[in-house]
Structure formats: C-alpha cells, structure tokens
Amino acid sequence: MIGNRLNFLLIILLFGCNTSKRFEAREKASECQNDWIYYDCVHDSSFSIKTLLFKPYKVHHITAFSSLVIGVNEAGDTVGFVDKDFKYNIEIGTKVIIEKSDWDLDQKKRLRPVSIWINDKKINKILCSVHIIGYANFKNP
C-alpha cells in the first residue's frame, strides 16, 4: 500500500516538473517573439537565405497571419522576414529569395506571424536568435 502511494507521488512529481519545464520553454519563446522589432526592408536587390524555420500564411476565423521565415544569410547572420502574400511551403534547409515589399500601415498592424509556442529547444533557440523581422516578399529560387 505504501509502495503504491510512493509510486503515485513520484509520478506526480515527474509529470509536474516536466509540465513546468514545458511551460518555461513556451514562455521563453513567447517573450522572444514579443520582443521582435519589425522594419521595412531597404534592400534594392533581392538576396537569399537558407531556411531554418518556416511558418506558413494562416487564416483563423477572421484573423490572417503572415508567413514567417527565419534563416541564415550569406554573412552567416540569422535573419527573419514576414510575407503577407506567400501561401506556399518552404522546406527547412532550402534557399528562399527575399525581396523588398511594400506594406501599408494597416497590413503591418493586422498581419503578424502566428505565435509559435513549442517545447523544442532547437526551435526556441532559432526564435530567440532573431531580434528584427523585415517586411518582405518570398520567392522560391
């Protein structure tokens, strides 16, 4: 009887700790995304990045979310961009071309990327390695 209670308490402790760690990971990812600063791309020419993370355009009820790509540029910097019109898929590890895009003020307010809350440390590290997100157009090479 005491053994069963002890096993039960151990299970509760293990799952409780695991849930706490998952919550902390989600909070960290959420904090990183809330700290992102958005800017208008000023590059006159296009350039490519190697994709580390991609989240597609999404509509949930009446709310639309822009596509998000985070990748590495030629200089080795981790950079992020959003596209209001890109409705395709980008495979992780492939190159995507980034071009300047014009977003009006209303689009900038309404079309943010969908929040990413995940327990994957690798993805959270990618999310937190970016601080500035550019408004852009994506093109598959």
Give the strand tally. 8
Which stretches are poorly predicted, pLDDT < 50 over at least 5 residues? none
User: Helix/strand/pairing class, anyone?
Assistant: alpha+beta
**N-to-C terminal Cα separation, in Å?**
65 Å
Q: How many domains in all?
A: 1
Helix content: 25-40%
What characterizes the major β-sheet? 5 strands, mixed, barrel
Q: Spell out the helices and strands N to C.
A: HEEEEEEEHHE
Can you walk me through this structure?
This protein is an alpha+beta fold and 141 residues long. The chain has one domain. Helices cover 34% and strands 32% of the residues. The protein contains three helices and eight strands, in the order αβββββββααβ. The strands form two sheets. It has a five-stranded mixed barrel with strand order 2-5-6-8-7. It has a two-stranded antiparallel sheet with strand order 3-4. It is globular. The N and C termini lie far apart (65 Å). The model has no long low-confidence stretch (mean pLDDT 80).
